[in-house]
């Protein structure tokens, strides 16, 4: 703001006197009448020019003061928010010193210079006077320039989910170290960089989750049981999700498939079981988002085996804590689970028993045991042997091979915590093995950022900055998608086209990869729609498909990062950590009084 001020200076009086004498000389000259008239005409123009020059000078000075006041206010607001124990008078003295350095050649005075450590509010009203160059001829010797700024920071939680690729290719070497080791080192660098601004990490409003992933993610036991040691309510052990029975279809008393999906009423009907069609036969809840278990169990002559029954069958196997994606309307979303909708529950991973006698299969029981009607000349039917539910009823007490946990062998994930020891222990436990399914890492990293189950320890959306840092070294690569051969995934068997992508009966690797690519993009869209910032880091030389996923998933071009080697990965994670550290304080300018 610019306003008029003090009496004239001596120099101003002299200038005014000279101008008056000039006018007298014009008046005394009889021949100068025209000049006098011209002079009077010039006076308004002369005054307007003087006003413009002096006003421009005043605005320039005002901008300089306001820029300095804004910078100092932000600096002091941040300082007092981070450490409210600094005396206000010390911060005021510091701020005035900074103002003097930034507004050189001017003497500043202050109507207000306030620092409130309790609220973090800083208010500055600074002013100075400037001499006019031409306006003093019209009685305006000085202009007072005022700059006022306010700043305030609120402490804001920051929650960071770090999802690290643990697939087998991470065992390769890059820049003199194994890629998995480079990822471990870079993750530590990221956490250090993000927390360096904090005096006490344990008490800071910054938490990390760690999600090691390949085709599966393991949830720690403490989060899948309640305080009494019972299974958490949000896990679908009983079969309320429409995907629970896809590979455990109910059967009749003759050992055949209960729901008729193919021709004939006898013999090996399991060869006609189509998992993608089972939802059309199951009795559903009123809204269609789950199975009506009471109605299902009431069907005459029906036999049901659940995933819990399968794990309970074996004395040498305990469920390892992996999950499939949810089903139905909840497939790609992150809404809270509820007992009202079976599809909102989380389906425990259970890898089906695959065909006997063929190498490369997850074969852990006989295909023809128990109540099964599969046998004789149907021995060579791979589909029948995988779909054959009754075999689990007569399974031995010990499973062999991989068992129903399948490839559920990643290091357990760590939900949001500020316990650095727990995080570093989990990082150290990461190992390279398995195939690549980006959808699993993306979805479970996001689950750690939701304020409801499975973990329910995140802040509400809007009350914290939420960041997802996702690192991978490869393309989606579901295993053996054209066969039932250790290929069960978070999206179940690729060859059964459960996402309805018109895949052939035996899809190629590239066709299956494309389905998983599309699913990855859909998960990323859902995550970004919730306001989560995604840093997508590709470690290595990304393919065209991987680049498309990276560019789609990252929040901006700046958060899509390709790191060619170990050093570039560490540099990228350090930069991400620096960016995250800056988010701890949310700046806002309160209204001026």
Automatic annotation (TrEMBL):
SUPFAM superfamilies: vWA-like (SSF53300)
Listed Pfam families: Tad
Keyword annotations of the record: Membrane, Transmembrane, Transmembrane helix
Domain of life according to the entry: Eukaryota
Residue ranges of the TM segments: 34-53
Protein name per Swiss-Prot or TrEMBL: VWFA domain-containing protein
Source species: Effrenium voratum
Coiled-coil features, chain-numbered ranges: none
Domain VWFA: 419-576
Record-linked InterPro entries: Tad_N, VWF_A, vWFA_dom_sf
């Amino acid at each position: 703001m610019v306003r008029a001020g003090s009496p004239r200076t001596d120099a101003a009086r002299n200038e005014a006197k000279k101008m008056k004498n000039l006018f007298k000389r014009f008046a005394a000259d009889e021949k100068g009448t025209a000049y006098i008239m011209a002079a009077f005409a010039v006076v308004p123009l002369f005054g307007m020019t003087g006003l413009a020059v002096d006003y421009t000078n005043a605005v320039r000075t005002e901008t300089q003061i306001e820029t300095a006041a804004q910078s100092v206010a932000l600096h002091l607001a941040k300082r007092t928010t981070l450490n409210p124990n600094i005396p206000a008078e010390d911060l005021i003295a510091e701020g005035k010193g900074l103002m003097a350095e930034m507004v050189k050649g001017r003497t500043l005075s202050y109507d207000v210079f306030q620092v409130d450590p309790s609220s973090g509010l800083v208010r500055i009203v600074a002013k100075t006077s400037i001499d006019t160059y031409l306006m003093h001829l019209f009685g305006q010797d000085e202009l007072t320039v005022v700059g006022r700024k306010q700043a305030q920071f609120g402490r804001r939680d920051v929650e960071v989910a770090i999802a690290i690729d643990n697939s087998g290719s991470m065992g390769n070497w890059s820049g003199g170290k194994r890629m998995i080791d480079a990822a471990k080192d870079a993750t530590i660098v990221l956490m250090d960089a993000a927390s360096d601004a904090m005096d006490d990490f344990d008490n800071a409003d910054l938490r990390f989750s760690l999600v090691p992933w390949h085709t599966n993610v393991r949830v720690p036991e403490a989060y899948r049981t309640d305080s009494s040691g019972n299974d958490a309510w949000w896990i679908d052990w009983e079969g309320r999700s429409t995907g629970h029975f896809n590979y455990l279809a109910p059967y009749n008393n003759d050992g055949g498939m209960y729901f008729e999906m193919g021709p004939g009423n006898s013999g090996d009907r399991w060869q006609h079981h189509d998992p993608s069609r089972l939802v059309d036969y199951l009795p559903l809840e009123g809204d269609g988002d789950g199975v009506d278990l009471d109605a299902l169990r009431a069907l005459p002559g029906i036999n049901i085996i659940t995933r819990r029954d399968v794990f309970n069958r074996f004395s040498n196997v305990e469920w390892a804590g992996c999950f499939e994606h949810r089903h139905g309307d909840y497939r790609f979303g992150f809404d809270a689970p509820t007992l009202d909708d079976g599809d909102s529950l989380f389906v425990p991973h259970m890898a089906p028993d695959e065909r006997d006698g063929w190498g490369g299969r997850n074969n852990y029981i006989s295909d023809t045991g128990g109540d099964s009607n599969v046998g004789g000349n149907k021995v060579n039917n791979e589909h029948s042997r995988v779909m054959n539910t009754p075999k689990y009823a007569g399974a031995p007490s010990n499973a062999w091979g991989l068992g129903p946990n399948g490839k559920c062998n990643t290091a357990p994930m760590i939900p949001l915590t500020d316990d650095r020891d727990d995080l570093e222990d989990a990082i150290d436990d990461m190992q390279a093995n398995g195939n690549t399914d980006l959808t699993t890492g993306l979805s479970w990293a996001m689950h750690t950022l939701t304020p409801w189950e499975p973990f329910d320890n995140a802040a509400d959306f809007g009350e914290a900055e939420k960041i997802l840092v996702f690192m991978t070294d490869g393309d989606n690569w579901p295993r053996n998608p054209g066969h039932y051969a250790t290929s069960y995934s978070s999206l179940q068997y690729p060859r059964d086209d459960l996402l309805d992508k018109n895949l052939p009966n035996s899809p190629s690797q590239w066709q299956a990869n494309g389905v998983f690519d599309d699913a990855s993009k859909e998960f990323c869209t859902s995550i970004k729609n919730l306001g989560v910032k995604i840093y997508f880091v590709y470690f290595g030389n990304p393919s065209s498909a991987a680049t498309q996923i990276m560019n789609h998933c990252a929040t901006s071009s700046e958060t899509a990062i390709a790191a060619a080697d170990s050093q570039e990965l560490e540099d990228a994670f350090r930069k991400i950590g620096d960016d995250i550290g800056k988010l701890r304080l949310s700046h806002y300018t309160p209204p001026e009084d």
